[in-house]
Amino acid sequence: MPRPLWKGAIAFGLVTVPVTLYSATERTEKLSFHLLHKKDGSRVDYKRFCVKEDKEVPWGEIVKGYEYAKGQYAVLTDADFEKAQTPATQAFDIRAFVAADAIDFLYFDTPYYLAPSGKGGVKAYALLRDALGQSGRVGVGTIVLRQREHLAALEPSGDALVLTTMRFAHEVRSPKTLDLPKARHGYQAKEMKLAQQLIDTLSAEWDPTDYKDSYTDVLKQVIRQKIEGEEIRVPEPPKLPKVVDLRKALEASLKDGRRPLSRMRGRRAVGARRPRKAA
């Protein structure tokens, strides 16, 4: 049983569902490295120096400052930070039920599982989960985690309710400053038809086990070879073809990339549950 991160309730209308929140992800394959002195292989240590006095500063003499003008700082104490903290409400208050395909990928951040707390919340939990599934909508509201208020979306995933923290609108950059082609610009109708055929050919049901962290696997291989004093041998990365003629590239992809029907488990495209609207 994973360690609970938060206990509270889902609130919508006059209904409350007591729940416990758990992390839905883990990084079991993350490799950690230390910084070493190239000359003798010893660990490199970080020290805090005062740029004015050129001497090391102990932690007890360090404060946090916000630079509001060049070289001008507003110093904040621990008490100041505590006053700015958002009061914990112990509730995820759903403010609206929004169509699932109306929210762009850009807004989603970190997923968490919610489980009912106690027998009293089981019925309401199941009801809300199944009602959301049938409606095609997600519950959007706010929750306070680690003294910070988060925007979040609630949706069913199998038997579980998943709460995913979201970015606020001001945290998402606009693409308007980028040099992007306009819609339906620069390609021919035949090329669009070929692209749609290629997408259809490569469509399949989403299976997360089909995708592996190949970088970490190769990095582990390199580390093992280093430890054993072997010559470093890693797979050659595939060479990406240079696209000179878009239409010919699409036609060649259709010819070479077609898979046997036995491997095509379905027609639903990967990521179909999430929208593709512009931010």
Briefly say what this structure is.
The protein is an alpha+beta fold and 279 residues long. Helix content is 22%, strand content 27%.
Number of helices: 5
Please write the string of helix (H) and strand (E) elements: EEEEEEHEEHEEEHHH
Biggest sheet, strands in spatial order? 1-2-8-11-10-9-7
Mean pLDDT over the full residue set: 83
Roughly how many Å is the radius of gyration?
26 Å
Question: Uncertain spans, ≥5 residues at pLDDT below 50?
Answer: 260-273, 275-279
CATH architecture of the domain at 6-26 and 85-171: Beta Barrel
* CATH topology (level 3) name of the domain at 6-26 and 85-171: Ku70, Chain: A, Domain 2
CATH class of the domain at 6-26 and 85-171: Mainly Beta
How can the largest sheet be summarized? 7 strands, mixed, barrel
Summing up helix and strand content along with how strands pair, one would put the structural category as alpha+beta
Q: Provide the β-strand percentage band.
A: 25-35%
Task: Say how many strands there are.
Answer: 11
